[in-house]
Design a protein that fits this description.
The complex is a heteropentamer of chains A (270), B (298), C (380), D (280) and E (430). With 270 residues, chain A is of the alpha/beta class. Chain A has 10 helices and 10 strands. In chain A, a hairpin with a 2-residue loop joins strand 4 and strand 5. The longest helix of chain A has 19 residues. Helix content of chain D is 35%, strand content 25%. The chains are: A alpha/beta (270), B mainly alpha (298), C mainly alpha (380), D alpha/beta (280), E alpha/beta (430).
């Protein structure tokens, strides 16, 4: 089922440069249809935004991409590899990282440990070599620590290094979560409401970090966000969804003008 | 066939005892999310108090039970007021540990006061039986069943229709939000402990009536009831009763048929069987048959 | 040449040191000194009590990995403790009490059987681990009680190996090569069994604590804590919860088995099912839980401090309460209650008071005190 | 129906025009952390007061201090005074404060997910004794949120975010409060829903309930508010009528962006804008 | 600056440790043998040995004061104490050395018991009572190095051959053998269906072993054998099996917590054989409670010595006299009587040790092996002592029936007192 009313720039086959291709996925919980036939693709280096009302299925789309849910229909390919059916930790190994709407940090651990956990799948130390420590485990620890410190530097988190992150301000925690994703060295970064609950100043900070990450690390990102300013400013393309159905896909301007999007989501203003 | 019925009935009788004990656990867990290890201690205290009133003061049995319920509830309340309230907001297992501390205290206090010798509860049922056709049923078992069902019905009505019951459920879900509605968590916790204390006294009667007698060993029933609680769902009164019955019958049938069906198994498999049933159920339903799953959101 | 400040950390390797600050190093030296000196100063009673403390500390370190770091509460720890104790008899040498059945005992050296006991404990733990995967919190705690009943059934039923309720005597000695800690002879001066066993047990405590600490600060330990704090998020960043949970279950069970082996060999020397399984086993398991909660959950040192407090307390109070006039020594004396009853009431009260005073355990108290002094004179 | 409520609200005599006042309130958490450093504010009867501030500025702490929920977070009011309807608020338990007529909608909605919508609403009427009064409030809430009528028996946890917010507001209204405290009602909601919520707040206020609106979303809050306070680091750094604040340069810069039209793009904010402090 | 302070502290700690180490323990060999020539001190043993300061002898008691086993531990200890009250009133051991008990709570856990043993072993001369088979076994390992005598508080036959132990009373096997003998004589057991219901542990095996031995001697087949486990509550299955096997006489080896639900089940299911039980199966609640009438009809208890209150037996008369004098609240209790006899035995050993002039721990062990016989005035059977290999426990048992009205005798009335069957006297103690 293709969408005729809006210009469709995401014919899955069309773009050879696509990193992620989501093709007609459908997801049901019991009797509830959470996602119906959603198709889009994300190009390498692109920042793709998903907008829509609460309960529209945005987060469910994320959960399908990184293996928390398994869609009953459709396929999701990352760099041509089918990832439907993979566990979330396997998608992590494939290079999918994400932040959480309500923060997914490990509150009792400090920043360094949280970021080191991002590198978990890049490290090898097991219980035995960890217990012995001297030798491989220590070398690996030091090497990965260096990478983590680079990220701490990039995101200006140095001042809080050894505090349990649960005790840090919300804005900082959001930034740490972004940092943890970067530590994973992902190919695709999923940002779930990165600026929710932030004031303008914090939002500007976060926006700046997102932009910097994009330009420095050439990262491909998908972002779910309600703050239309952020979406309009940062996204290359936007997809609007409602009731698990795609309403429109296009440049921010195109989507903003779309009557169905205005009716379902934006309201009279904007 | 009569043998099967005999085993099943014996199992049901034991199951109702488990159910009564389990109901006390459930109410505290529902309100505070703490498994109260001292429940067995409260139960022991309750039984000894009944004994104390019937034998020493020669109070009529039903009145003695009510008096014991009141005193046991009072002790439970006092513990909540003096200790657990101060532990609020601390790790759950620190709270559980505190109830274990109380268990040590109650256990030994009871022995210090009444000694360790088994005593006669003084209930009116004794070992009298009634027979229905071929089947013989102990009167005390019928009473235990009636008490268990009675307590269950009272719980149901309480949670469904009373304000305090609603407050208890709300507090269990989100204490601070409940406070914001003007529900006093203190009241709720005290009520839960009070009810659990009273229930413990009733359960104690179920355990120690008839020839069993009053002895410090009645507290072990509380530990044996654990599989019942978990199987039924730790926060569900109905689950407690059904879990209790399943465990009781499973145990009795295992004991009855082990030698015929599994002669190669080591003796005493009936002690293990409840846990096997419990694990099997939990593997399918991690929160028991009737328990509320945590709503997990990503 | 200017001396470099010890607070200046110049590379990550230094930052990862366990005893980075000179204060910590001083503490370590003090402990080492105590380790050497205590056996020369204390009498046999205190030494054997401290050996018991050490054994419990080892088991508690293992339980803390499981409960403190991975958030999995187990009341089945006594079972694995028992596995180790029976392994000590089977593989380290022993005989059946009452000699009703012929049981095969191997006479392996400790350097072989103790790790073997650990491996067997770990293997059994790994078998149980998958159940733990599905369950959480207090559900797991209760289900793990089932282990105690299964254990009871096996130990009492498998008479041809366990000798049932009569139990086994353990003949194994804590010796490594020619050095037997129960019969220590250094430079011609002989030491009592209690002295040697103190050194042996506490060396092991230090070793196990070090290994545990290393795990906790490296990749697998972080994974455990991640799962404890947020299991879904942990999986999404690539942590394999099955591997971590089963791994930590195996590890903690293995450590419990090692502790149990030493317990059998040094503390009781005759083992019967009731310490490890059934209701008695539950008391043992609860003792372990009490240790880590009183000491401070998710700290390695908390397990050791907790053991010192919980295990010693019961002895100390029982010595102390003898002096109270309102207690009776024998049942027909005048008095309020028997000494033993009062002792356990006091024990219950102390647990409550400890937790009321510091629900996060003694280590948290210690940390509060030290940070207070570090920050002094500023109040926050 | 509504008239009777407004009538009772206006009944108390003398200091009737001020519902809530706080003077120099200081809050300390865990004996060490300062949450508020002397906050004063006043809510006139029938007005909407907005409280703005960034994360950690003390907005939620202020609400906790007012509603008696500091205990839960190991916090204490160490200085200052607070009065509601002329009665002091210090050392009162949450229940008596709710009973006196102050209800709040907590940050993150905090409905009881395992209970039905109906039961959630009933929890809000916990302090109300009269059955008839409960009935009346219940009808009023359902007329305010017609969406909820069909969902009365659904488990609240399965509702959408917007509906949950409505349940949360409805629950607070079940005690027929004279003062409603709203903590970040727009958090995490779609723009369309935010507008709806704003409309509801306006309507509730029009029916005679005074409102304190704690928000990050300054545009929405100030457009509703009669008076606004700006919190920074536990202090009130600015206050004034809503319209005045909307026009304030600093407010515009730090909370609104410089007006929609002339707003800079985030892409242009290349260098970190140094935080300007009103307080030193 | 700060680092210097740290180093200073390290220095001090090290210095301290060296000083302390220097004054370490050097006199390691003090605990050894006291003067070997015992006879030189005959009647006047030298003081300064553990548990004896020249005027008072301290004796250890390791018993459960808490938990379930306190039901047994408490009366045993009270019995111990009563006998020594008597001894002390008469001036003490050998008329001059007062006896003091040092009771310690074991919580019925081997670990706690071992710790209490370690805490007391240097301050007691011997242990009058150690309760619990597993606990006695665990401590026995230590006793072997320390050479301390102890009185185990069970009737296991296993204790008989160990020189460090001071058993009294006829083993459980003897009770069973005499029990079957009584059944053959009085209940026509040879032509009845004889069955067994025994606990699945060492105690149960002892009872069953005795029964099997006696049955073999008498040429009787045991028709059904049922077992149960510690603390079982539901006996429907076992009783069903016994009932369908048509059992008329059932040998029972159990503890009270098991006897009660078992008898309840039997009575409600209408199963009414003659139960004959080992002595530990009994508690007075059985006679006082609802089960009284059923048991009066169907239950016999095998024990030793006279009916409680039978003053014609000197040992019993003496105990009752002492109760009146020192413990007037004490009611009839089999464990109490056992504890009294146990202390009586210890007193005889101590008298002997004083006579030999050596109250050291090893001296007391040696005294026990030099006594030829322990006597109890008929309270329990006389026990041939001497070297462990030559020990010979009493072989007599008494049969008691239940009388729910007989409060003064603990609801037990003697049917046959101190009978020794042929089989019992021939039974070989391993």
């Amino acid at each position: 089922m293709s969408d005729t009313s809006t210009p469709d720039t995401t014919s899955p086959a069309a773009s050879a440069d696509a990193l992620l291709v989501v093709d007609g996925i459908g997801l049901r919980f019991g009797g509830v249809q959470a996602i119906t036939d959603v198709t889009f693709s994300v190009n390498r280096g692109e920042l793709f935004a998903v907008i829509g009302p609460n309960g529209a299925g945005k987060t469910s789309i994320f959960n399908c991409i990184n293996g928390v849910y398994r869609p009953q229909q459709g396929s999701i390919r990352l760099d041509g590899v089918e990832i439907v059916g993979m566990h979330s930790r396997e998608t992590a190994e494939m290079g999918v990282a994400r932040t959480f709407q309500n923060l997914g940090l490990f509150g009792n651990l400090d920043i360094v440990d949280n970021l080191m956990l991002g590198r978990h799948h890049l490290m090898k130390t097991g219980f035995l070599s960890g217990a012995v420590w001297w030798g491989r485990a220590k070398r690996e620890e030091i090497a990965n620590r260096a990478k983590v410190e680079e990220i701490i530097d990039l995101l200006e988190l140095g001042n809080f290094r050894r505090k349990p992150v649960g005790m840090l301000p919300y804005g900082i925690q959001k930034r740490i979560e972004l940092g943890r994703c970067l530590a994973m060295e992902p190919r695709l970064l999923l940002l779930d409401e990165p600026v929710a609950g932030m004031n303008l100043e914090e939002t500007e900070d976060m926006a700046r970090y997102i932009i910097e990450v994009r330009s420095n690390l050439d990262m491909t990102m998908i972002m779910v966000e309600h703050d239309m300013h952020v979406v309009m400013d940062l996204a290359d393309r936007v997809m609007a969804v409602d009731f698990g159905v795609r309403l429109a896909t296009g440049t921010p301007e195109e989507v903003q003008q779309d009557q169905r999007v205005i009716d379902a989501y934006l309201g009279k203003a904007s | 066939m009569t043998r099967f019925i005999e085993f099943a009935l014996a199992g049901l009788a034991q199951g109702f005892v488990y159910a009564l004990v389990a109901l006390g656990f459930v109410i505290i867990y529902k309100a505070t999310e703490v498994i109260n290890f001292a429940q067995g201690g409260l139960l022991t205290l309750g039984v000894y108090l009944v004994y104390n009133f019937t034998s020493g003061q020669s109070v009529p049995f039903p009145l003695a039970v009510v008096m014991s319920m009141i005193v046991t509830a009072g002790v439970a309340l006092l513990f909540e007021r003096l200790v657990l309230r101060r532990m609020l907001g601390n790790p759950v297992f620190a709270q559980v540990m505190v109830t274990i501390g109380l268990l040590f205290i109650l256990q030994n206090l009871v022995i210090a006061i009444w000694g360790a010798e088994p005593l006669n509860l003084g209930d009116p049922w004794g070992i009298s039986t009634i027979s229905i056709g071929e089947v013989i049923i102990e009167v005390r078992d019928l009473w235990t069943a009636a008490l268990a069902i009675g307590v269950l019905v009272v719980f149901f009505l309480f949670f469904r229709f009373s304000k305090l019951g609603l407050a208890m459920r709300a507090t269990a879900v989100d204490q601070e939000a409940a406070l914001a509605q003007g529900m006093s968590s203190r009241q709720v916790y005290m009520a839960a402990w009070g009810i659990a204390g009273a229930t413990a006294a009733i359960a104690g009667v179920g355990v120690a009536a008839g020839a069993t007698g009053v002895s410090p060993s009645v507290e072990f029933v509380a530990l044996l009831a654990f599989p019942a609680i978990i199987l039924g769902g730790i926060d569900s009164p109905l689950g407690a009763v059904i879990g209790g019955l399943i465990i009781g019958v499973t145990q009795s049938l295992t004991a009855g048929y082990q030698n015929e069906l599994f002669p190669w198994l080591w003796a005493g498999f009936d002690d293990v069987m409840p846990f096997i049933v419990m694990v099997l159920v939990l593997l399918v339903r991690p929160y028991g048959l009737f328990g509320t799953p945590e709503i997990k959101r990503v | 040449m200017a001396r470099q400040s010890p607070y200046l950390i110049t590379n990550y390797g230094k930052d990862l040191r366990l005893f980075g600050s000179s204060w910590k190093r001083a503490g370590l030296l003090l402990l080492a000194a105590l380790f050497v000196v205590l056996p020369l100063q204390l009498d046999d009673f205190w030494l054997s009590l401290l050996a018991t403390v050490g054994v419990y500390a080892i088991g508690a370190v293992g339980l803390n990995l499981l409960t403190g770091y991975a958030g999995q509460v187990s009341l089945g720890h006594a079972f694995f403790f028992g596995v180790g104790a029976y392994c000590a008899a089977w593989f380290g040498g022993g005989n059946a009490v009452g000699t009703r059945d012929e049981i095969l005992f191997l006479d392996l050296p400790m350097i072989v059987w103790l790790p073997l006991a650990g491996l067997i404990g770990a293997a059994l733990g790994a078998l149980v681990g998958p159940v733990a995967l599905r369950l959480s919190g207090q559900y797991l705690a209760i289900v793990s009680i089932g282990l105690l009943f299964v254990g009871d059934w096996i130990l009492l039923g498998w008479v041809s190996a366990t000798n049932g309720s009569q139990g086994l005597r353990i003949a194994a000695e804590p010796s490594i090569g020619p050095v037997n800690f129960s019969d220590l002879n250094i430079f011609g001066s002989a030491f009592s069994p209690e002295q040697g066993e103190f050194w042996f047990v506490w060396t092991l405590v230090a070793l196990v604590a070090l290994l545990a600490k290393n795990i906790v600060r490296s990749r697998p330990g972080r994974a455990l804590q991640a799962i404890r704090d947020r299991d879904v998020a942990a999986e999404i960043i690539g942590v394999n919860p099955a591997r971590a949970k089963i791994g930590v279950f195996a590890l903690s069970s293995g450590i419990a088995a090692v502790a149990g082996g030493i317990y059998g060999m040094i503390v009781v020397r005759t083992i019967t099912p009731e310490i490890f399984t059934g209701f008695g086993g539950l008391v043992t398991s609860i003792t372990f839980i009490a240790i880590i909660i009183v000491g401070g959950i998710s700290t390695i040192s908390g397990a050791i401090v907790g053991s010192l407090v919980v295990v010693t307390l019961r002895q100390v109070t029982s010595r102390f309460v003898d002096l109270l006039p309102f207690l009776k020594q024998t049942p027909n004396d005048d008095g309020l209650m028997l000494v033993g009853q009062f002792n356990l009431i006091v024990f219950g009260l102390l647990i409550i008071i400890f937790l009321l005073a510091e629900p996060l355990g003694l280590i948290a108290l210690w940390r509060r005190v030290t940070t207070y002094f570090k920050a002094w004179p500023f109040s926050y | 129906m509504n008239t009777s409520m407004t009538a009772t609200n206006n009944a108390p005599g003398t200091d009737a025009d001020v519902v809530l006042s706080a003077q120099g309130v200081e809050v300390v958490y865990r004996d060490v952390l300062l949450g508020l450093r002397g906050v004063s504010l006043e809510v006139k009867r029938g007005s909407i007061v907005a409280v703005l501030g960034s994360n950690g500025s003390g907005k939620t702490t202020l609400l906790r201090a007012l509603t008696g929920l500091l205990d839960v977070h190991r916090g204490k009011v160490t200085k200052g005074s607070m009065q509601f309807e002329g009665q002091p608020l210090e050392r009162r338990d949450p229940a008596s404060i709710v009973r006196a007529g102050m209800a709040q909608v907590m940050e993150g909605r905090r409905i009881f997910p395992a209970l039905t919508v109906d039961e959630n609403l009933r929890t809000g009427a916990y302090t109300v004794r009269s059955k008839a009064q409960i009935r009346e409030n219940y009808d009023r809430v359902l007329s305010l949120f017609p969406v909820l009528v069909d969902r009365r028996t659904s488990t609240a946890g399965y509702l959408s975010g917007g509906e949950q917010q409505m349940v949360a507001i409805g629950r607070a209204l079940m005690s027929s409060p004279t003062l409603l405290l709203l903590d970040e009602p727009s958090l995490g909601l779609a723009p369309l829903i935010v507008e709806q919520i704003a409309g509801i707040v306006r309507e509730v206020n029009a029916q005679g309930t005074s409102v304190v609106l704690v928000e990050q979303n300054a545009t929405m809050a100030l457009s509703l508010a009669d008076h606004g306070y700006v919190l920074e680091n536990g202090r009130v750094v600015k206050d004034g009528p809503g319209a005045e604040l909307l026009a304030d340069k600093d407010i515009q810069e730090f909370y609104l962006g410089v007006g929609d039209a002339g707003r800079k793009s985030f892409r242009d904010v290349k260098t970190y804008r140094r935080r300007k402090r009103w307080s030193s | 600056m700060r680092s210097n302070r740290g180093r200073a502290i390290v220095g001090i700690a090290l210095a301290l440790s060296l000083v302390v180490a220097a004054c370490g323990r050097s006199e390691e060999s003090s605990g050894g043998e006291s003067s070997g020539g015992g006879n030189a001190n005959a009647g006047n043993p030298p003081a300064g040995v553990p548990g004896f300061d020249g005027t008072t002898i301290s004796l250890g008691v390791l018993t459960p004061q808490t938990g379930l086993a306190a039901t047994i531990g408490d009366p045993l200890t009270a019995g111990n104490q009563l006998y020594f009250d008597r001894v002390n009133a008469a001036g003490g051991i050998a008329g001059k050395y007062k006896v003091q008990l040092v009771p310690k709570d074991t919580e019925y856990r081997a670990e706690k018991a071992v710790q209490e043993y370690a805490a007391t072993k240097d301050s007691v001369a011997m242990y009058v009572q150690i309760l619990g088979t597993a606990i006695q076994e665990a401590i026995l390992v230590e006793q072997e190095t320390d050479e301390i005598l102890s009185g185990p508080a069970t009737l296991d036959a296993e204790w008989v051959r160990n020189p460090l132990l001071m058993p009294i009373g006829a083993p459980y096997q003897i009770q069973a053998i005499n029990g079957l003998d009584y059944a053959i004589r009085e209940l026509d057991a040879a032509n009845s269906t004889v069955c067994a219901m025994t606990k699945d542990d060492l105690y149960g095996q002892a009872g069953l072993g005795g029964l099997e031995y006696a049955a073999e001697q008498a040429g009787i087949a045991i028709a059904a054998k049922q077992t149960f486990r510690q603390g079982d509550q539901d006996y429907t299955a076992q009783i069903g099996a016994l009932s369908s096997a048509g059992c008329e006489i059932v040998w029972l080896t159990s503890l009270p917590t098991e006897t009660i639900p078992m008898m309840t089940g039997a009575s409600t299911q209408g199963f009414a054989p003659t139960w004959i039980a080992n002595s530990p199966a009994w508690t007075s609640l059985l006679g006082a409670g609802e089960l009284g009438p059923y048991l009066a009809e169907n239950f016999l208890l095998m024990s030793e010595g006279p009916q409680w209150g039978d003053t014609s037996v000197p040992g019993m008369a003496q105990m009752l006299e002492d109760i009146k004098a020192y413990a007037p609240d004490q009611t009839a209790n089999v464990y109490f009587a056992f504890g009294y006899a146990q202390a009586w035995a210890a007193a005889q050993v101590l008298e002997k040790a004083v006579a030999l002039g050596d109250l050291s721990q090893a001296g007391i062990v040696s005294a026990a092996s030099q006594i030829t016989e322990l006597t109890f005035g008929g309270l329990v059977g006389d026990y041939t002592y001497g070297p462990a290999a030559d020990r010979n426990p009493p072989r007599a048992s008494s049969v008691f029936a239940v009388d729910p009205t007989s409060t003064a005798t603990g609801f037990l009335v003697g049917v046959e007192i101190n009978q020794t069957s042929q089989a019992a006297s021939e039974y070989q103690i391993p």
